[in-house]
Amino acid sequence: MYKYRVSSMGRMYLYYAESDDEGLDGRYSHIHKEFEIYYMMDGEVEIILEGKKFFIVSDSLLLIPSNCFHQWEYPPGRIHRRISIHFLPEFLDKLERYYFLSEFTEPVHFLNGSLHKLNSFIQTIAECEVYEETIQKIAAKARLSSLLSQIHFLKSNNSVKPVVLDERIRQVIVYIGEHLQEELSLDILADKFAINKNHLNVLFHKVIGTPIMKYVTTKRLGFAQQEILSGTRFNEAAYNAGFKDYTTFFRAYKSFYGYPPSEALISGIDFSDTKS
After folding, report:
1. How far, CA to CA in Å, does 91 sit from each of 59, 136, 194?
2. How many C-beta atoms surround the C-beta of residue 32 within 10 A?
3. How far is CA 7 from CA 17, 28, 125, 144, 223, in A?
4. Superfamily assignment of 2-158 in CATH?
5. Rounded CA gap, 211 and 206, in Å?
6. pLDDT tens sequence across 183-238
7. What is the CB neighbour count within 10 angstroms for residue 260?
8. Backbone dihedral region of 77: left (phi > 0), alpha (psi from -120 to 50 degrees) or beta?
9. Going by C-beta distance under 8 Å and a sequence separation of 6 or more, which residues neighbour residue 8?
10. All structural domains of the chain with their residue ranges
11. Tell me: the pLDDT tens digits for 128-175?
12. Mean pLDDT, rounded, for 171-184
């Protein structure tokens, strides 16, 4: 039996799940615009984030950056209980965005979360559900910032390294991230890494869970959004991210985020009804 509940706090969402059978056949690849903090209270799951495999067991925490393709697989017939915190970058203030978004560009995984009091930080955020709406958002934001600060403090010495599934694909991902402003096509990437383009596309899709050019577009959108939230003009942000015309960027941005670039800067907007 699978029980699932969502609690919204404006730009932050708490997802609760408890199950003895996840009900998913194989792996399912997806991506969302929010950051995700995934805490496994009891159970286990295998999560693949852009070619890196993480083994999540009871009392494990995994921070997943925004715009990060990920897949999961739960052992069938095994009980698990988990809570996930999703938050949009806009939930943080400008200084916090500048700091945390630049620090958390890669997944961060911890075992023995209670040893580092990470479970206590999660619990204090969950407690905000019962607060009156205005106080709830203030408290949730403050407590999320505390959790992010603790994750940052611990990550250098206590985080767990993932398993890299394919070194060639890892190199392709690094190259894409470092050359977003340049022209990137399947032909260019295949030539760069001396791999047949059809084989590269199939292999990339198998490891990452999405076609290579969809991955490129998604990464460009994420980069552009960070530029916009940092105060860069929309046209300039689009160009810096590798989009050659603003119309293409605007349509892609609105399709993915659910709102136009200008609304990312509106402090009072509630994104709880946008698709994730």
Report:
1. 26, 13, 42
2. 17
3. 12, 23, 11, 15, 28
4. Regulatory protein AraC (2.60.120.280)
5. 9
6. 999 999 999 999 999 999 999 998 998 999 999 999 999 999 888 888 899 999 99
7. 12
8. left
9. 272
10. 2-158, 166-265
11. 999 998 899 899 999 999 999 999 999 999 999 999 989 999 999 999
12. 94
Between β-strands 45-49 and 52-56, what pairing exists: parallel, antiparallel or unpaired? antiparallel
Q: Which residues pair with 53 in a beta bridge?
A: 48, 163
pTM: 0.84
Contacting residues for 84 by C-beta, under 8 A, at least 6 apart:
14, 15, 17, 36, 37, 38, 39
Query: Strand pairing of 60-64 and 35-42?
Result: antiparallel
Going 27 to 28 to 34 to 39, the CA torsion angle's sign is: negative
CATH number for the domain running over 166-265: 1.10.10.60
Q: What is the pLDDT of residue 267?
A: 43
Contact 9, 56 (CB under 8 A): no
- Nearest residue to 189 via CA among 164, 169, 208, 167: 169
- The two three-digit tokens of residue 90, written as one number: 């806009």
DSSP 109-156: EES-GGGGTHHHHHHHHHGGGGS-HHHHHHHHHHHHHHHHHHHHHHHH
Structure tokens at 231: 């105060």
- Alpha-carbon separation of residue 99 from 10, 13, 70, 93, 211 (angstroms): 22, 22, 24, 10, 31
Of residues 71, 83, 91, 73, the one with CA closest to residue 22? 73
**Do strands 70-73 and 12-19 pair parallel, antiparallel, or not at all (unpaired)?**
unpaired
